[in-house]
Write the structure tokens for this entry.
Amino acid sequence: MSIRGVELGLRGLGKAIANRTILHDINLEIKPGEFIAVIGKSGCGKTTLLRLIAGLTEPTIGQVALDDSPLAGLNPAARVMFQDARLLPWKRVWENVALGLPGLNADQALQALHQVGLADRAYDWPLGLSGGERQRLALARAIANTPSLLLLDEPFGALDALTRIEMQQLVEQLWWAQGFTAILVTHDVEEAIALADRVLLIQNQHIALNLPIHLPRSRQRGSAEFAAIKDQLLGAIFGAGYPLATRVVGA
Amino acid sequence: MALAIEQTTSATRPARRLQLRQLGQRWLPWLVPIVLIGVWQLAATLGWLSARVLPAPSTILQTTWDLLLHHNLLGDIAISTRRALVGLAIGGSLGFVFGLLNGTFPLSERLFDSSFQMIRNIPHLALLPLVILWFGIGETSRLFLVAFGVFFPLYLNTYHGVRSIDPKLREMGIVYGLSKWGLFRHIIFPGALPSILVGLRYALGVMWLTLIVAESLASNAGIGHLTMNAREFMQTDVLVMGIVIYALLGKLADTIARLIERRSLRWQVGA
């Protein structure tokens, strides 16, 4: 694995929208090539955190540092994969990939499509693609320019369970091969454990838990260690009520 | 054996029926006009229709042929077409540019949109007497009216097309490092294009309508001039011919617009 990911520092980062605090005093150092997963209940601010790192919104206080230089405006290192694929329906598949490449480079676009297994659809229109293929295409577009930071905003949330596992493996493979720094926002605790070096739990506007995952890759979801980590995370999310509540329902 | 025969006939019959149906689909739209023209010709030949009211189709064809050979009918058609296209180019491009500006920049929208909406509500043909006072009965007043008429459909549809582009796509373009020009070229223009083309087709209709009125009231050449002269000399055949030519030109313009639409919006059907 060749590491050419970017190093990220979040320093005293805070964001308020219309006097409502979304995030407060976020401090975090992310090593180059690290895979971070951010989980939390919906509305907890995890997408806002991603948008701050992407430079799509300005922090109210604090800063994002990129290889130790403060970020101003749009993050030049980052590529974002959104929950909805955000494809341009009027451009063919390969043109969608080429969008973020200098000079709309066709070879590079085909190369990226090949990496996500979509090379045979290169000349089709995006409207003919299935949901999984659309996200594959979005992924190809995100990695085509070999970015040093990949931001994933619940990219598999709308996919069926089997396609989701396929996509997760694909992202892990590409991350392993290209060595970019990855930040994955998800509401799927299993997905976070399967992919991340570290899982962050955001609760009450700050990082409530920062849990390194030491399981060897590629990870067996059925293993006892995996289940134990999952229990630990769910316990942190729901507090003492989590295992108790499931037992009551089961009885 | 009987079974085999049964199978072959049942296999060929649907195929033949399908062919017939395709043929029917193709020619069915022509049936009503052809029957109507046939009845019209018959009525004129049998003397039920006075030639003063409505001359026979064959007479109109004959007149058209004469005019083509001896009176430079093609020249008149060319003059009318040129007027239509120049007016469309001026008014259409202004409408397109203002649609883009007002769809993109809030300042420009605040400045212009309410004025345009106000002017839009004037029936533009009502301006004709005023326009003749301003520009006389020359070419300028006709072009002005056509340009004025086609401005609004293109303005409104371009504006609407730009405004209705998903802001998420715009955000994606920004994240993927597109410049302002790149955003326009790859996202805003193609996204607005379906709506712009609807505006164009509507503008083509307005274009012919305006031209017919403008040429009829004040003109020294062109189809409108021809038909107005014909009215003075009671040449009903020339009059009807003029109307048919307008219809054909309008249909031609619409067909071209539809071809452009089909070619540039191929992505919508995924072919």
User: Anything to note?
Assistant: Chain A touches chain B through 23 residues (CB under 8 Å). The first helix of chain A runs from residue 46 to 54. The two ends of chain A are 48 Å apart (CA to CA).
